[in-house]
Write a structure and sequence with these properties.
This protein is an alpha+beta fold. The protein has 2 domains: about 5-245, Protein Transport Mog1p, Chain A; about 255-360, Nuclear Transport Factor 2, Chain: A, CATH 3.10.450. Helices cover about 25% and strands about 35% of the residues.
Length: about 350
């Protein structure tokens, strides 16, 4: 590895307590102290063939209508304002104080269950839409958006796609889009696809490198927009950034109550999961999720302390079935004049009952 690249890695080390900060940030979001965690209320799934048909229609809408987040063809995220990154954590000054050296300062991005460091001459802006959101990073030296982080439901990021399928996707998402290279890699310890492709924007030829990752039931896409004339220093900065990516860790231990519920019947699982859902505790909810769970993880969107659970409908604890439905029927508050149901699509995996899907019904 070139000496300059090695120096770039040294200058962009991830803070030691990043994982702990991610955990704390996620808990704050679950408690409602930051409105950006919960993104979109999920609609309940119906029959299998209907869900498949609806999914197929949505995939067509996403691929034909624009890119991953329904942008216009052949465009990249654009800044709508001139955000001030002063509230972010600048690590370069700490290095100067500790070592006496003056490396390029970096800023810590800590949000949405992910943590990484990026150069402090970039400015970041968060943009939201119904499918998730995008963080655009603007290089003030180059005067252009050079990097973006996109988030959406996990099923929108399919790591099993082959070259021909990626080519079809890119040609629909970008004007004159052509896949140049596809390879397997890892990002933050997770399997990822790395693809480089060319496209046209405003009549000019452009090139981008994208990393597709799925972590904690969320789809992530990191995209580097190459300058037209090329930039070795920017290449190094992006490579160093990707080396600092960390995702929120999966819980390693379960409580006695959780383990007992997992080993018992589906209603036991439903009760404990519902308690975690209404408490806005995504870490506890995560313990009950099936390996097939593919939606954004989100807690109850209102004040869960006012909820009054009335009854559970559906599967019984002594059922001989291996999959089925449970409805947790509740009143949203004492003043509510109608019932709401937390619908749980459940499946038995080994000896444990897990949640394959959940959503609210009126």
């Amino acid at each position: 590895m070139k000496e300059r690249l090695r120096n770039a890695y040294d200058q962009m080390k991830m803070p030691d307590d990043c994982a702990r900060r991610i955990e704390r940030a996620m808990k704050e979001k679950a408690q409602g102290t930051d409105g950006r965690y919960t993104m979109k209320a999920a609609a309940p799934r119906r029959g299998g063939w209907k869900a498949a048909a609806a999914l197929a229609c949505l995939v067509v809408a996403v691929s034909v209508g624009g890119s991953f987040l329904l942008r216009d063809r052949g465009t990249q995220p654009q800044f709508s304002a001139d955000p001030d990154p002063q509230s972010a954590v600048t690590t370069g000054q700490l290095a100067v104080e500790e070592t006496g050296e003056d490396p390029a300062a970096t800023v810590e991005f800590l949000d949405y269950g992910i943590c990484f460091s990026y150069p402090d001459h970039w400015k970041e802006e968060t943009q939201q839409n119904e499918d998730g959101g995008v963080n655009a990073f603007y290089d003030q030296d180059l005067g252009m958006t050079v990097f973006s982080l996109e988030r959406s439901e996990a099923w929108l990021v399919d790591l099993s796609l082959e070259e021909a399928e990626y080519q079809d996707q890119i040609s629909q998402q970008y004007t004159s889009g052509v896949l140049l290279e596809l390879s397997k890699t890892t990002v933050g310890g997770m399997d990822a696809n790395k693809l480089t492709f060319a496209y046209e924007e405003s009549g000019e030829s452009r090139m981008a490198t994208r990393y597709d990752v799925v972590a904690n039931q969320v789809g992530y896409r990191f995209t580097y927009y190459h300058p037209q004339q090329g930039s070795a220093s920017l290449d190094q900065e992006v490579e160093a950034l990707m080396a600092t990516v960390q995702f929120e860790g999966q819980p390693e231990e379960t409580t006695d109550q959780t383990q007992a519920a997992l080993e018992d019947g589906p209603q036991d699982v439903a009760k404990v999961f519902a308690a975690a859902y209404f408490a806005g505790d995504p870490e506890a909810m995560q313990l009950f999720l099936s390996q097939d769970f593919d939606q954004l993880l989100e807690g109850y969107p209102m004040d869960g302390t006012k909820v009054n659970i009335q009854q559970l409908r559906g599967l019984e604890n002594d059922t001989q079935e291996t999959e089925g439905y449970i409805g947790v029927v509740f009143l949203e508050s004492e003043e509510a004049d109608s019932f709401t149901t937390l619908s749980l699509d459940m499946v038995k995996e080994g000896d444990e009952w897990k949640i394959r899907y959940y959503g609210l019904e009126k």
